[in-house]
Amino acid sequence: MTANWQGNGGLVAATVLGLVLLLALPQIVDPVMMIELTSYVIMAILALSLGLIWGYGGILCFGQSAFFGIGAYAYAIAVINFGDSTIPLLLSIVVPGLFAALLGYFLFYARITDVYFGVITLTVTLILYKVMGATSGSQYVIGAAPLGGYNGIPAVPPLNLPGRPDVALSFDGLFYLSGLTLLAVYVGLRLMLKSRFGQVVVAIRENERRAELLGYDARFYKLATFAIGGAIAGLAGCLFANWGMFISPDVFGLAQSAQVIIWVIVGGTGTLLGPIVGCFAIQWIATKLGAQQLLNANLVLGTILIGFVLLVPKGVVPTVSDALRRLKFRPYVAPLVEQRRVP
Amino acid sequence: MIEVKNLHSGYGRIPILHGINFTMKPGEVVGILGHNGMGKTTLLRTLVGQIKTTQGRIEFDGRDVTSASSSERARAGIGYVPQGRDIFPLLSVMENLKMGEIMRDGASAIPEMLGHFPVLKDLLERPGRGLSGGQQQILALARCLAGRPKLVLLDEPTEGIQPSIVDLIAEKLGELKVTLGLGIILVEQDIRFIRQLADRVLIIQKGAFVAEISPDQLYDREIVDAHLGI
């Protein structure tokens, strides 16, 4: 963990690299690829949210897409009703955050952990999928927004300048906004994890019982982490609704829930870079596989996942970091040599 | 400081403690001796709230903490250094120490802890898992003390530790007992360590205290044999 809590130098370097990529990519990538890249960036924000909850909070949430979907729906419904996107944008963060807080309260304070937590969060997601799917018909409207059942909500109005619904965000603008949001979430989480709150969160992941014996209410810290992760996923959902100008119950589906977990597994838990790398890599492979007829895309992706779980269980980023660290540092010899050690 | 009345607890349906009674004053060190499986660790874990009290009452500093959570008891001033140390292996020594003092108001206790345990000074950036057993024990103790507890529960602190470090720990605890009025409950198999530190010794058998002896009586082979059969 010490190695992961790098100094500010690393953070500045990561920020500069992110800004350079953000400015350079639109100049060198064709417009079709830009559309794909924008979705990768948005999904990377979702991956980061699970990276925080699972990788640092130690909370295995199988239903991260629930918050993503709630954020997307909250934005879509609100922006159709309000016209201006300022409040809908805020709602897309607040509503899933509050939903995560409410769900987390009942789960953490009931001491539900591990696989039970995963199963319950997945069940909640699938319930939302069914519930939203059952909203077809003219009676299912919220204000001026029809929910549309499995057909979803089409023609979701784009983000606009605050207070200026007539100045809508262009597609290039959405790429820049998504990229800046990803960067801001990454930097914000890095700073948060360096703070005392972040240290406590990691300590609870390491040894919850010990942290409680030092005076920390693990339930509260886990709840706060879960709510923050839910809010970030909701923000990603808002951007996703803008990207496709459409939202449907598919965002709550099993496939969406599973792929977030795959991104984090492939990239590596316990890092913030890992989920981003995993998301970009898997999304890119999925795009390439989708463009050919020779191999079944799901079969190849499944094989990749199994390969990673078996051969690179820590994920790409932690494995590469460890290899670099081994090259950089010589083994440490403890100054106080013990005669006997605890087995 | 702490008053325990008719304390019962156990694991699930299996009762382990059967009516523990004792009181302690500030600055007092109470040693608890007993064979394996007699309930020593269970007693400590019940006192810190890791095991639910099924009957009885625990009062700490005049406050009933019987149904308080572990974190509430820790904030009230009960520190615990468990068997096996339980340091955070991936956090550095400094981060481990910070974890200990976060609950504490005012100035950092880390410089003070490094003064008590200078061996940690050269290890501050080292991850906890990179420390030897003795260093981990010192870190666990320093982290606990960084939270400025009024009462420290130590579970077999000398287990697997070289004698020089055992002496260092005994010396520091003896010093803190006097200077800070620190109360200590010491579960230990090492009779020499208990003799060095304890004001009195409680013998536990089958989940209940059966005798109270003075540390000097631990020199008496007959008394030791009678209570402990060792």
From TrEMBL, chain A:
Membrane topology: Multi-pass membrane protein
Keyword Signal attached: no
The UniProt record lists the keyword Membrane: yes
Record-annotated membrane-spanning stretches: 37-59, 66-83, 89-108, 115-132, 167-189, 223-248, 260-282, 294-312
PANTHER family documented for this protein: HIGH-AFFINITY BRANCHED-CHAIN AMINO ACID TRANSPORT PROTEIN BRAE, HIGH-AFFINITY BRANCHED-CHAIN AMINO ACID TRANSPORT SYSTEM PERMEASE
Protein's cellular compartments: Cell membrane
Key words of the record: Cell membrane, Membrane, Transmembrane, Transmembrane helix
Protein name: Branched-chain amino acid transport system permease protein
Domain of life per record: Bacteria
Species this protein is from: Aminobacter niigataensis
UniProtKB/TrEMBL annotation, chain B:
Highest rank taxon of the organism: Bacteria
Gene Ontology molecular function terms on file: ATP binding
Statement: the UniProt record of this protein carries the keyword Nucleotide-binding: yes
Coiled coil: none
Keywords, alphabetical: Amino-acid transport, ATP-binding, Nucleotide-binding, Transport
Domain ABC transporter: 2-230
Family: Belongs to the ABC transporter superfamily.
Protein name, as recorded: Urea ABC transporter ATP-binding protein UrtE
Naturally occurring in which organism (per UniProt): Aminobacter niigataensis
